[in-house]
Amino acid sequence: MPTADEVLVGPWPPTAAEVVSVARAGATVRLTDDALKAVLAGRRRVDALAAAETPAYGVSTGFGALATRHIAPELRARLQKSLIRSHAAGAGPEVEREVVRALMLLRLRTLASGHTGVRVETAQALAALLNAGITPVVHEYGSLGCSGDLAPLSHVALALMGEGSVRDAAGTLTTADSALLAAGIRPIDLAAKEGLALINGTDGMLGMLLLACHDLDALLRTADLTASMSVEALLGTDRVFAADLQRLRPHPGQAAAAANMRALLADSSIIASHRGPDCTRVQDAYSLRCAPQVAGAARDTLSHAVTVAERELASVIDNPVVLDDGRVESNGHFHGAPVGYVLDFLAIAVADVASISERRTDRMLDVARSHGLPAFLADDPGVDSGHMIAQYTQAAVVSELKRLAAPASVDSIPSSAMQEDHVSMGWSAARKLRRAVDGLTTVLAVELLTASRALELRAPLRPAPATAAAVAVVRERVAGPGPDRYLAPEIAAAAELVADGTVLSAVEAVAPLS
């Protein structure tokens, strides 16, 4: 039986949670007996094809625009090595360890399907690399998201050959041959088709999509929290979040966001303090009143992205692919359009959730719109600037997120002498989404920090139990209202509380969210 720290890799797709576990938590992997049988059967078909006189793409021919060149049997091992060496052509900064581990697991899963034709020992070597904590150095640039993530996966395949650079389990930069030797892993001498099978997949962009979906699931609940805190702090109403009102527009994400806000604001003495006939305000600003509509639309976008990710997880991405009846057929499954589109779609949603958060923060700081709060929440406005420049930082991030929302997937550029004349740019879409997720984390952290101070300045009125729990967690790391202090570490501390789920866990212990 697998342990909590082990993921079984079979001919079936892994779950998103298993991918995150291997990528981030260092879970080990184990190929199942079914996987080994499937790999062996697929290899027999490729061996038979390699012995045949009929040319087969990637087995007895060149690649891409060079596919018309027939490769003699004595040159085919060199063909596979040359493919990997030439395609390991990435440039720019190193890609994060979690991304590389995710793409390694996803490529291993495709190998385990038996539809790629690799040998058992090649699949086992990739599993061993993961289990030893060895992470090949993969670079920011090199993938066009069509013919798969060629350059990133080639750097992984290069390490399996005992070439190139890697990070060992301790994170130390070293050579692949020395790392494999230390781990007791024998370098792979690639056989027919294996080089192609190791690199022709959407694994990098899919891995980043799965990690982003995991993070956004928590960030969107956090956005409901910070919005609720701002509604309280700005003496807004919770009546607009009522279930019967929300049912008039039955988007599921909106319903979930509104339900969360009702739970978060339940039993708030601040909200109760201005419910009576003396309150002359007819309705709140859009950034408060429309919070469920915006966060809800983002939730529905995320739901669509998860559906696409699950389909891609269930896919076998290789070219050519080994079919159950023994045929080996060329195809276009490696085209990253399905993944690239939703990566871009999520970046749009992230930018808008951040934008409305920044508008709420600015409202709390403006004495003309904050309904009695001191200017910029400063201790002594004029002498102190309070959170004035925290909002500048927030605004700068939001502006960057708008730029990151420009789609990469419409920017096809031809390659390989026009053989590969339309590409997805899905890898690029994934890279910018990762930056966008980090940006949203910072924006929500500033709103959390600002709203916490504003709620305390409403004393002796008390916030709701759930939002009070968020303030209490923030106060464990950041001091309360007072004269100006060095603010950057406080923003960083709040961002950490958001990113690691600490604040969300404390709140959900009081009011479970959906």
TrEMBL record:
Subcellular location: Cytoplasm
UniProt KW rRNA processing keyword: no
GO cellular component: cytoplasm
A single GO BP: L-histidine catabolic process
EC nos: 4.3.1.3
Top-level taxon: Bacteria
Keywords in alphabetical order: Histidine metabolism, Lyase
Catalytic activity: L-histidine = trans-urocanate + NH4(+)
MF term (GO), any: histidine ammonia-lyase activity
PANTHER family per the UniProt record, alphabetical: HISTIDINE AMMONIA-LYASE
UniProt record similarity statement: Belongs to the PAL/histidase family.
NCBIfam families recorded: hutH (TIGR01225), PRK09367.1 (NF006871)
UniProt protein name: Histidine ammonia-lyase
Source species of the chain: Nocardiopsis ansamitocini
